[in-house]
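Changelog entry: the Methylglyoxal synthase record was regenerated in this release. Current contents:
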Amino acid sequence: MIDTTSAPSPVRTGPLRIALIAHDGKKGEMVMLAAEFADFLKTCTLVATGTTGARLHAEVGLEVERMLSGPHGGDLQIGARLAVGGVDAVVFLRDPMTPQPHEPDINALVRACDVHNVPCATNVSSARLLLTAIQLPRT
Ligand SMILES: O=C(CO)COP(=O)(O)O
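Regenerated structure tokens:
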């Protein structure tokens, strides 16, 4: 069991590692969000599910490590990395209006964020807050 009451681990040096994921109905919003924060995101190590990453590269010019597409296991790949400490924050623009074939994978990724206390923004408003706050100097 993870002890969430103990002191936070020492500050990690190096670029922040951010995962970016968007369902099809939210990819346009993801592209706009990423363009808004492009200067910051270019300083980060980015990972994304397949199609999201392709669009971020093509339309925003971001260097993004691309995992499998979500329905083919991309959420699980990101969740597995996160579970071993490899992801600092997640922006996951889920589409609450459209059923997804890989709903268990989606829930697994969000659950992994909760288990490991990794910030996870699931809509644009919270993503703006997260991306703004995470840029603040770490002490
Ligand atoms: O389905 C997704 C997340 O659950 C996103 O996958 P893509 O970025 O490959 O479309």
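The radius of gyration is 14 Å.
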